[in-house]
Amino acid sequence: MFQDRLQALLVPALQAAFSELFNHALDARSVGFQATRPEFEGDVTINVFPFLKQSGKGPEQTAQAIGEHLKAKVPIVERFNVMKGFLNIVIADSYWFGFLQEAATQDILEFPPTGKRVMVEYASPNTNKPLHLGHLRNIFLGYSVSRILKSAGHEVIKVQVINDRGIHICKSMLAWQKFGKGETPDSAGVKGDKLVGKYYVEFDKAYKAEIEALVIGGRSKEDAEKEAPIMLEAQEMLLKWEANDPDVRTLWEKMNGWVYEGFEATYKRAGVDFDKNYYESQTYVLGKNDVLEGLKKGVFYEKDGAVWVDNTKEGLDEKVLLRRDGTSVYMTQDIGTAIKRFEEYPGLSKLIYTVGNEQDYHFKVLFIILKKLGFAWADELFHLSYGMVDLPTGKMKSREGTVVDADDLIEEVVSEARKTGEQLSKLDDISEAEKAELFETIGLAALKYYLLKVDPKKRMLFDPAASIDLQGHTGPFIQYTYARINSLLRKAGTMAQWMHDPKSAWPLLPEERAVIKLLHQFPTVLDEAATKLEPSAIANHSYELVKAYNSFYQAIPVMKEEDAAKREFRIALSATVASVTRKAMWCLGIEVPERM
RNA sequence: GGUCCCGUAGCUCAGCUGGAUAGAGCAUCAGCCUUCUAAGCUGACGGUCGUUGGUUCGAAUCCAACCGGGAUCGCCA
């Protein structure tokens, strides 16, 4: 990494300075470089306060002594200044020119292969209702993480888990049977997932009506909830499903098929995909044997006929893994599925679950259990826990109909992009089809960037008005900068290759230097994003970069520059910003348009 | 009640492996298009970093307590 390379040049020199000046060994890890604050002259800053004990001198003298030593010994240290305990170092232009030369000719956001395989699970929808805003945060986050890991040199396997069985889908099936009159997505003219979701709501209505009737008839609310005929019927249907009843299975396959078509359409429009799907109907039987084996080994224990794990030593509770009747719980399946994945993918070195933070406890327990079962890879499991998405009106609640539908939302951001795009009317000469594609790209960028720029761990507020904003700290602003550079490059024609020639170099302008430094930091940001699984780091740095570029663009002529060497250098700088931005957006799952 | 997460400008968020005068965007106000895309740029306004203690040469950042918000603690999924 380039940041590391600069440090690699400076740290040993600093250590040498230390032993010569103060006769003291300096631990490389204790050295912290920081970017020099803009109000001072310099590129990197060393804070000497931590070294005062060893130097035995005051901050100014210490910094001054180190600065003089570095300037004498390190060619790229051009000059320095001391402000209190801060040693601000100016790195020679030649270093920055040299870096740009490299960045212009290779992808600085593509790391060499690590040989590691990583599985990222980033969607686990139920098949009884359509995808909503919460799913979108999950999907965009996981997709971005998988691309970041890929750029960081890992082999990535993207998977989703489809919760295709259980009482929830039986409810939809039953309601469709009762009230559907044979309606299909085609006959109703709606997406399959929407149709099935509609019958899930129908079930709930009928169920509530039955409860009410029973309560009026004198039953307690709790009894009524248990005794409502339609609920009993749904439970019966679930039993039939488990018994492989042909009629139930046929209906189940038909309705799930509708849902998959609907999901597929949403994923396609959202621009995400998966390498493999796991279906709960196939995995829900897994895990039972593993639990029984754990019982034999004494990892688990039996109480009241059920199998339990005791995690009280870990500060957690006891948890049932097999019910008294021998059937599985959710945890059991997850144990089995994890084991299966590591069997299916030999050499899998990491498994990341992108799941909301309401399941923090679940994953804590799951990982502890797998560790107790003795799987070495248990340490490589990671719960990428993301915060809930709130609306200005409060929490999303499906029962209260406050859920923001994924398809509707995408439609809205795209049409907003269209509205603005047509107002600006810069695109009168391109076809309707091209325009449609462009607005799709811009609208989705607005939405994705809005969801990804926030630290995934944090709960976030979804403000519909802000999410379709195309100005300021937004995806379209970044796209705009890219398109703008492209326009510049088109004017430049076949780009004459700029080559850094140390002999004919000129002083870098502050605007140029600022842009180069942000490019220089980017690989470190990618590394951090890949380590911490934080797309927001990429999103925010991309914004910093294009903002600095726009300031440069505003103040400094590129094509109008008369000195050919400078002109070509600025074209190369612009082209590099464009290509790095494109790659950074790729890491977020965001496309960039050639013009807008 | 136990455990965990969060609290930074009017709003939404950065900054959090301790370091200089805490940064952006939106909103508000004032400038900049006969020159490379104004979806842009420049500037102004705006802060007891929830509160109180502690550690430290130095705390938004680490620790503790409290206040406020959220999640979770099923033989549900």
Quick take:
This protein is α/β, with parallel strands linked by helices.
Mind explaining what this structure looks like?
- By secondary structure, the protein is of the alpha/beta class.
- Among the domains are: 90 residues, Arginyl tRNA synthetase N-terminal domain (Gyrase A, domain 2); 106 residues, no CATH class.
- The chain has 22 helices and 14 strands.
- The protein has a five-stranded parallel sheet. Strands 1-2-4-3 form a four-stranded antiparallel sheet. A three-stranded antiparallel sheet has the order 8-9-10.
- Strand 9 and strand 10 form a beta hairpin.
- The chain is globular, with a radius of gyration of 30 Å.
- The chain binds one RNA strand of 77 nucleotides through strand 10, helix 15, helix 16, strand 14 and helix 19.
The SS-based structural class is alpha/beta
Q: How many strands, what sense, and barrel or not for the largest sheet?
A: 5 strands, parallel
- Rg: 30 Å
Shape: globular
Mean pLDDT: 93
List the strand order in the largest sheet: 7-6-5-11-12
Q: How much strand?
A: 5-15%
Q: Based on DSSP secondary structure assignment, what is the total number of beta strands? A: 14
The low-confidence runs, each spanning 5 or more residues with pLDDT under 50, are none
Please tally the helical runs, counting DSSP H or I stretches of 4 or more residues: 22
Give the end-to-end Cα distance, rounded to a whole number of Å: 33 Å
- Helix content estimate: 55-70%
Keywords:
four-stranded antiparallel beta sheet, 596 residues, 14 strands, globular, Gyrase A, domain 2, five-stranded parallel beta sheet, RNA-binding, alpha/beta
